[in-house]
Amino acid sequence: MAASAIIAVLEKLLTLHQDLYDIAKRKTIIIKYGELEALNQVMKDENKIIVAIQLAEKEREKAILLLSKGDPVRGTPSTILECLDWIDEKSDQEKIVELRSMLLDTIEVLKDINNLNQQLLEQSMQFVRLNLDLFSPESNLDNYSKTANEESETIRSFFDSKA
Fold it and tell me: What phi, psi does 18 have (nearest 5°)?
């Protein structure tokens, strides 16, 4: 029973991470085209999935505790691979290993696309800063201007002419 709970939670986590990957791909396109409204909506959707992943992680922890039943001799397993020792069915063990592998692969691909999105956002910010610098007037160079304490010098011309 506990093995099926772990399998169900791993399947849920895999689905949620795949959904997060799909959103990250959409986000890449949105960033490329600079659509802020769409980016805000995608980020809201992304946050909903992140909350669901956090809840699924808590479910996974509960399923692991249920599996170990607080065995004082072996302790509570902390990773999915440690849970395999507690599961008798070979088919359940294989399913858990397969789901774990798929989840790790999905997370790795998700990290890559998130890094790409981060780089695209940084480039967009550099472009915005460059455009702002081009359109903003040059500021006075304060280091080379007279201070309030200095007296103004009289302007002399090269020719002393009296007319």
Answer: -65, -40
Output helix, strand, coil percentages for the chain, rounded to the nearest 5. 75, 0, 25
Q: Is residue 57 part of a domain?
A: yes
Contact criterion met (CB below 8 Å) for 125 and 37:
no
What CATH number does the domain containing 31 carry? 1.20.58
| Cβ-based neighbour number of residue 23 at 10 Å | 20
State pLDDT tens for residues 47-94. Answer: 999 999 999 999 998 888 888 775 656 667 778 888 888 888 899 999
Domain of residue 118 covers 2-135
* Structure tokens, 131: 């455009």
Domain-embedded: residue 149? no
Residue 109 confidence (pLDDT)? 98
Distance between CA atoms of residues 134 and 136, nearest Å: 6
